[in-house]
Design goal:
The protein is built from 13 helices and twelve strands. The chain is of the alpha/beta class and 385 residues long. It folds into two domains: 244 residues, Type I PLP-dependent aspartate aminotransferase-like (Major domain) (Aspartate Aminotransferase, domain 2, 3-Layer(aba) Sandwich); 128 residues, Aspartate Aminotransferase, domain 1 (Alpha-Beta Complex), CATH 3.90.1150.10. Helix 6 links the parallel strand 4 and strand 5. The longest helix is centred in the last third of the chain and has 20 residues. The chain binds pyridoxal-5'-phosphate. Pyridoxal-5'-phosphate (PLP) binds next to helix 3 and helix 4. The site of pyridoxal-5'-phosphate has 14 residues, from helix 3 and helix 4.
């Protein structure tokens, strides 16, 4: 048995909560749905939350709610999970990629602005809080004001992360916001089992807009009216519902999130300490005005390493029973995007260079110290060998 890449933090409390739902008559649209949404909205400092069956579904509903459609462009990052661009394709909206900031790995506001200056079809920006590091929200609010754009926040990897406007930034309407998921006209958390907390499958759309809230509630339930009653389908909708079984799991996970995030931070700090002594690998860093919520533990190899070196190192770690993964292969280099849009290597050099040298190591709240020792020792041996 090797060390897995991720592993959910499930206790007897979660198991009990799920069992209780199974013994109740309300497997769907029961009291847990509402409670999960209330807790999620409060946690993110949002007025409304709509639980859905995945983060991807949540992103899709936001794109629909904002009336984005064929002929519109949206600027987003190529350095992300494919869903953050696919949600646009579902509606015929064109994702226009801007490269990332090398330090935060997030969508670069400067690159975004240079696209905005020449593209009049852009209707929205979709930054991703990558690896639990919030995007540069001050800059994106500023761009959204100046260019009259909507903001969609993909905070699927960032539940619990915090962003405070840096000193010297003028006090503006977003200054009071802090939590990842509170930025953007709407935002999404995701709860696949590799995320910080899980519902098995699931997502949560967060917004302060009653209009977006009502639309998302309706569209997740086949376009019925907001209350979910059966008097007619008002608009095109989907089955993006989340069952009370998933919600029961999510409620306990949200109640325990402080302790789960602390454990993840301690694991990350332990990794950091070990890796400090190994030259050639660089842990993730965070800006001083940001509190990262640890989603994955990714290390960057030094600039002299090529993609081939990286792949060879990964194979050697795997041979030692250590699961590892590339994170992310840039979206524009995915076969579907190459084929559909003609992207090629070289189009987004920062994303590609980071991607080529990155390895995600095993990371979860209950990863043991002895495992971290073994993993970091193995990295040292593999790099030396
Ligand atoms: C996990 C994730 C999503 C949503 O994924 P689902 O599997 O649909 O829940 C969206 N965007 C990013 C960046 C993610 O990491």
């Amino acid at each position: 048995m090797g060390i897995p890449l991720s592993s959910p933090d499930i206790t007897a409390r979660e198991i009990r909560a799920v069992k209780e739902v199974l013994k109740s008559p309300a497997l769907c649209f029961g009291p847990r749905l509402e409670k999960f949404e209330k807790l999620g909205a409060a946690y993110a400092g949002r007025r409304y939350a709509v639980a859905v069956n995945s983060g991807t579904s949540g992103l899709h509903l936001i794109v629909r709610s904002l009336n984005l459609s064929r002929g519109d462009d949206v600027i987003t990052t190529p350095y992300s999970f494919i869903a953050s661009a696919n949600c646009l394709l579902f509606e015929g909206v064109r994702p226009v990629f801007a490269d990332i900031d090398e330090e935060t790995l997030n969508l670069s506001p400067n690159m975004t602005e240079s696209l905005l200056q020449k593209n009049k079809k852009v209707k929205a920006i979709l930054p991703v809080d990558v690896f639990g590091h919030p995007a540069d929200w001050d800059a994106f609010y500023d761009l959204s004001d100046r260019y009259k754009l909507k903001l969609i926040e993909d905070s699927c990897e960032a539940i619990g992360a915090e962003y405070v406007s840096p000193e010297g930034v003028k006090k503006k309407r977003w200054r009071k916001k802090k939590m990842a998921g509170s930025f953007g006209a709407a935002s999404v958390f995701a709860f696949y089992p590799n995320k910080q907390i899980t519902t098995g499958e699931g997502g949560l759309v967060l917004t302060d807009s009653k209009r977006i809230y009502m639309l998302c509630r309706s569209m997740r339930n086949q376009g019925r009216d907001g209350a979910g009653r059966i008097n007619g389908h008002l608009r095109l909708g989907y089955n993006y519902r989340l069952s009370d079984i998933n919600c029961a799991l999510g409620i306990v996970q949200l109640q325990r999130i402080g302790s789960i995030l602390n454990k993840r931070q301690r694991v990350a700090q332990c990794y950091n300490r070990h890796l400090e002594t190994i030259s050639g690998v660089e842990p993730l860093s965070a800006l001083p005005n940001v509190k990262r919520s640890w989603f994955v533990y990714v290390v960057k190899l030094a600039k002299q390493f090529t993609r081939k070196d990286r792949d060879r190192i990964m194979r050697k770690l795997e041979a030692r029973g250590i699961a590892c993964s590339t994170y992310f292969i840039p979206i524009h280099l995915q076969p579907y995007y190459r084929k559909t849009f003609g992207y090629k290597r070289g189009d987004f050099p920062v994303s590609e260079s980071v991607s080529d040298r990155s390895i995600a190591l095993p990371f979860y709240s209950n990863l043991r110290k002895m495992d971290i020792n073994y993993i970091t020792d193995s990295i040292k041996k593999v790099l030396d060998g």
